[in-house]
Design a protein that fits this description.
Blueprint: H1 2-7, H2 14-17, H3 29-55, H4 73-92, H5 107-129
Helix pairs in contact: 3-4, 3-5
Length: 139
């Protein structure tokens, strides 16, 4: 995004950021596709996790706001969660065949490793001190 905005002159110091070094390669197409897959899965998980918690743990205690889907909210929530699960599997599949160490999609390794680190941090430390977001609106 920085390159695209700099190319169009929309970033401070655009002339510095929009240059591409012709001697250096950005890597293989497989590596680029893995990076895109990791970013996509991460974004989808960030959206789906609160939806999943809403339709499971908070299904009875959730108080809907002024805009809600009414009786279709739970159904749409489950469709969204299933969609993210399917997309996560699809983006984890190999992007080139035959699958070798050069063409293997390392997305599941990266996402799984991050998940292990995050959950471990929560279990070992954050659950003892994190109390949730600070509210700034009086009831």
């Amino acid at each position: 995004m920085v390159y695209a905005f700099s190319r169009d002159g929309a970033m401070p110091l655009s002339s510095l950021w929009h240059k591409v070094n012709e001697q250096e390669s950005l890597g293989s197409l497989v590596a680029f596709q893995a990076m895109v897959s990791i970013a996509t899965i991460g974004l989808y998980i960030a959206y789906a996790l609160p939806i999943f918690l809403r339709v499971t743990l908070a299904s009875k205690s959730f108080i809907p706001g002024p805009f809600n889907l009414g009786r279709y909210g739970i159904l749409v929530g489950w469709i969204a969660v299933l969609w993210v699960a399917a997309i996560s599997v699809i983006f984890s599949l190999p992007v080139a065949y035959p699958v070798t160490e050069q063409t293997l999609n390392y997305t599941p390794v990266a996402v799984g490793g991050l998940l292990i680190l995050t959950v471990s941090y929560w279990i070992l430390s954050a659950r003892h001190w994190f109390k949730g977001p600070v509210t700034n609106i009086d009831n």
